[in-house]
Request: fold
Amino acid sequence: MSRPRVAVIATTYFAGSHADVCVTRLIEGYDYRGQHIPARVEVASLYLEQLGDSQEDQPRPDIGVAIAARNGVPLYPTVAEAIGCGRPGVGVDGVVIIGEHGDYEHNERGQKLYPRRRLFDSAVATMIGAGRTVPIFNDKHLAWSFNDAKAMYDTARRLGIALLAGSTVPLTWRTPRGTVWPAGEPMSAALVVGYGPTERYGFHILEGLQAHTERRRGGESGVAAVTALSGAAAVRATRDGVVPHELLHDALRHADVSDADFGVVADDVQDVFVVEYVDGLFGFGVNFVSSVRTFAAAAHGPRHRMACTMQLQDAPYGHFVFLVRQIENLVLTGQPTYPVERTLLTTGVLDAAMRSRHDGGTRRVTPELSVVYEPVLDVPDTGIELAFPLSPPEEL
Reply:
């Protein structure tokens, strides 16, 4: 039986890159629930904008060309040719955009100017010219700016394109196994701790937060304001109780930080994100320099408390399997498995946070983030109900 075909549009493809941990699995299969299986879709074509990555301290050479060659996947020099498989039109059943990594500039706010909207627009223009649309998956946040993200979202809705995006963090293993906020239960405050570069990993912190908060009573009604503190101001916010101590302690215990070490760990904070939701909920993201090396969440409500680790894995980065499963499901069914509005809202919160941080921690009112949606309560093919197999990660 033939499999649905996808075109992969990637910025770069080196060992351990997002293209590698996603696309290599789509090309060569992957381990899932104890066995190696072929992907449920076929990679029919590949567009690579750059070969390798020379912007980091250690150059990382391209591996995508060789992987494509040994598996008979043709490479094309333009997005349109990849989607048409070398011919005019749309020759695939889905498009996978991996706009992560590569030699791209940063703006004055520290946002890396990945060309995700440009790649998306190129794919959509090809579809419009051909008179046929197919689903699109966009890795991580939709774009570095909310304006671009909203334009992508609006275009997909206008043209009836099924669009999915996001992080591995909401999909991965949780410890304790199966931990979720009870659907429809009122929530008073929520928090996620994490680590890493502010924008790149801040997205994972914020989308991890959103995956929990969206389950509260009333669903998601949007974000009213965002504040981002960094450096000494972030440390003060953690120590002085701007970040609720009880909530933070609950999350840190699941990140293997004892209460006795709280003072030392508080000095290691590099960023604090404060998210004020339209319905009055407060959400917090706390990003550490080195003392926390995992992602953990806590949430409190009048009748319920929750805390868990969202476990990631060292090489071979098995948590990406759950993202690969969502890509396959999108193409197989023609429908996103969870609302893209979650990623749209998180993209906007991150953009507002980077602007607040650049402006010295000013509170930014965000009427543009009145994003309303109902969550999917049981997303298929995640690790949430599965036992975590191996050790925590060093990279994401």
Observations:
- The chain has a mean pLDDT of 96.
- The longest helix spans residues 340-358.
- DSSP finds eleven helices and 15 strands in the chain.
- The radius of gyration is 20 Å.
